[in-house]
Amino acid sequence: MRLSFISTAMVVVMAFLSCQQSPAQSSSSLLQLQGVPEDRDNLAITRLLNFNDPNTGAWITPTGEAWQPALALDAVINTLQRTGNATYRTVLDTSFARYKNRRSPSYDDDGWYLNTWLRAWDVTSDVKFLDEAKAIFSGLTNQWDSTCGGGLWWSSARDYKNAITNELFLLAAAKLHRRSPNGTGAGSYYDWAFKTWNWFNNSGMINASNFVNDGLNSACQNNNGTTWTYNQGVILGALVELWRINGNRGYLFKAEQIAEATINNQVYAGGILKEPACETTSCGGGDHLIFKGPFVQGLARLYNADRGNKPAYATFLNNNANSVWNTSRNGNNTLGFIWKGPVGSPDMATHTAATLLIGGVALLNAGGEITNPPVATNGTFYEAENATLRGGLGTESIYAGYSGTGYVAGWNADGKWVDFTVNSSTARTATVIFRYAAGAGNASRLVFANGADIVANQSFAGTGGWGNYATISVNIPLNAGSNTISLIYNSSKGSNNWLNLDRIEVK
């Protein structure tokens, strides 16, 4: 089910933004004013970026830079996917430069960044994010041992096996199998995903009421620890990924049991989500301030997988979004910890959690998170912006979704072309994949290699927008050693229309 909306003038939209919460809507028809979730997300993201240093990529959080920046970036990625605004891609790239290669003695910290980089890969298809995610995952596999029958340790102290570390690892393994498949045998992402779930499901951490407790005690039994909301949320996305791998709806059923335990019991009157501790009594530190964000993120993923069967999840997300916006927001649009209000003393963590909710609702209206992610191959990538540009061709980074640092643009006249230097160890016929955007409609170019026409008038189908990318494949004979592959505007051969070229992949 899509969240449905009715259109109205902007003046009414802005009036709605300042009004009190609207009456509850039915679970089968969620009518809100057109643009309200999107406008809220735009305002919330703008405020969130005030906690980011655009020069260094650093995020100002109540817990330092241990792990909460990863969730802030998740919120930015939501808005990047929905809008295609290159500003958000710049934030992502700058933060990646800061946090790449970051490793922590607390392995759940690594798990948050790992899953954020996988989201970045989904939205950008930029292999740097996938490569870093795979590197983090590889390191985490070393933290699994046979204590308590399996599972990752929480930290380098190796004295606690907890829920969140293993949920994040499970989510990442299942995602990596679908994005960079490496078989199904021992040590594959597939193997890690199902081995981790089987261990987790049998560990006892999911209690009889379908809540996930915090971890295992020294006797390898459920420690009856606090049922933090993030422990109820990350597992939902992991189970959705397992379902996407093999279609077994049993994974969705289990996820729904966990989700409904929370949305039916861990709430205030009116169904407004609450953290099971720290809202009515003070807790030390700032970790808990962000926990509700991963829960609503996971619930949105579960709803997106099964919209027709679970409209109540959309109602829950909308009602919480309305409540936090109308009752727990201060004068500069910073969102608070207690979503039923009052706003209290909001900070980066509370605001990030609520922005994951606000942005998640807006993204659901646009179709939700990407469900058919790009799949990595064994080819070699050559970024167009690093190629030799002829005839005054230039590069841009205006429209998001590109890989690398930008794309070649301004390309609609004779005498303009791109030369790629490609080395091959042997003479062979390679498959060359051109990734492009054709926002002005169908375009065509001459494909030329090593002094010969390969395809005189290669068609590039229109992509419906400059932020939408597509690929075409051409078989090109390569010599052993250095080769030049060119994409040329030549009107005498039929070349026409504008084209942005992101990269080629040679397989």
Topology:
Layout: E1 5-6, H1 10-18, E2 32-33, H2 36-48, E3 62-65, H3 68-83, H4 86-99, H5 107-124, H6 127-140, H7 163-179, H8 189-202, H9 229-246, H10 250-265, E4 267-268, E5 272-273, H11 292-305, H12 311-327, H13 348-365, E6 380-383, E7 388-390, E8 394-396, E9 407-409, E10 417-424, E11 428-437, E12 443-449, E13 452-460, E14 470-478, E15 481-488, E16 500-506
Parallel strand pairs: 1-2
Antiparallel strand pairs: 4-5, 6-16, 7-10, 8-9, 10-15, 11-14, 11-16, 12-13, 12-15
Brief descriptors of the model:
Jelly Rolls, 2 domains, five-stranded antiparallel sheet, 39% helix, globular, disordered N terminus
Descriptive account of the structure:
With about 500 residues, the protein is an alpha+beta fold. The protein folds into 2 domains: about 5-365, Glycosyltransferase; about 380-505, Galactose-binding domain-like (Jelly Rolls). It has helices spanning about 10-20, 35-50, 70-85, 85-100, 105-125, 125-140, 165-180, 190-200, 230-245, 250-265, 290-305, 310-325, 350-365; strands at about 5, 30-35, 60-65, 265-270, 270-275, 380-385, 390, 395, 405-410, 415-425, 430-435, 445-450, 450-460, 470-480, 480-490, 500-505. Strands 7-10-15-12-13 form a 5-stranded antiparallel beta sheet, with no helix packed on it. A 4-stranded antiparallel beta sheet has the order 6-16-11-14, with no helix packed on it. A two-stranded parallel sheet has the order 1-2. It is globular and about 75 Å long.
